Amino acid sequence: MPGLGVEVFDPGVWVSQVQGPKSLEVLASAVDGPMPEPFKYFDMAEVTIAGQPVMLTRSGFTNELGWEFYLLPDTDIDAVGERILEAGKPYGMTPTSADAFRARRIEAGLLNAGSDFDEATTPFDVGLSHMVDFNKGEFCGREALLHADKRCRTWGLRTEGGVAQIGRALKSNGLDAGVVCSSAWSPYQQCGVAIVRLDDADAGLDSDFEVVCTDGEVRSAQTCTTPMYDENREIPRGLKIAVPEVAEVA
Question: Taking the CA of residue 36 as centre, how many other CA atoms within 13 Å lie in the half-sphere pointing to its CB?
Fold first, then answer.
């Protein structure tokens, strides 16, 4: 970039993740040699898997116990993938798409750029006011944020019996009331879960709405805090590793 001494480029690095209560056991079986030590929540480590250099992080976009691995252009991706899949077989691990972990990130309140927030939202709109420090001096957007509405408009949503439709599907007494930003079915909670942004910031927590669902039906829904459970975030830190029991569906 002219005058700034900055070069913008694609580093050619790909990331994937292994998530779940048994994920660290899968890692122990996949790495060449011993497990990295220490390897605490949000730690980073360099290891080899199937003889290939791999960068690990104790993180993930699910709020589950897990790890992410980063692959370089010259990495033998097939060798790494085959080793990890083989290590995961005894634990019932299966490859999944983003659809599979979307419910967990919604339940955890992990916001997705472009859907849950974008260039038109402020940190206050989406519940990130704790990340704004007006005492740090000048920064881009400071003046606009000083005069912005400081109320939160973004909440979790539970819908019984269905999954909320993305878009302006949130209603109150039949009138538009907000946007469904992300949604999924929660196998654990046995209900639809969503991230929503309300038109009326005063509506807030524990508010009742109607929501148009993906099957076209209109169902009752209620706003809630996130995380929807595991409020102290013990699961991703490995402090709570019991596999949850799924409620029986009538």
Answer: 21
Strand partners, 186: 191
d(Cα 215, Cα 136) in Å, to the nearest integer? Answer: 48
Express each pLDDT in 10-36 by its tens digit: 888 889 999 999 999 999 999 999 999
Find the length of the chain: 250
CB within 8 Å of 66: residues ≥ 6 apart: 17, 18, 19, 20, 23, 58, 59, 60, 236
What is the reported pTM?
Answer: 0.87
Its CATH architecture, for the domain 110-224, is Beta Barrel (2.40)
For the chain, which residues make up each domain, given as ranges? 14-95, 110-224
Phi/psi at 20 (nearest 5 deg)? 135, 170
Where does the chain have alpha helices with state H?
A: 23-30, 77-88, 98-108, 142-146
Average model confidence (pLDDT) across the chain: 93
| Neighbour-count burial of 16, counting CB atoms closer than 10 A to its CB (0-12 exposed, 13-18 middle, 19+ buried) | middle
pLDDT tens digits, 172-186: 999 999 999 999 999
Res 205: pLDDT: 94
Give dist(CA 224, CA 206) in Å, integer: 6
Strands (E), 29-153: 44-49, 52-57, 66-71
For domain 14-95, give the fold: Gyrase A; domain 2 (3.30.1360)
Q: What is the tens place of the pLDDT at every residue in 138-152?
A: 999 999 999 999 999
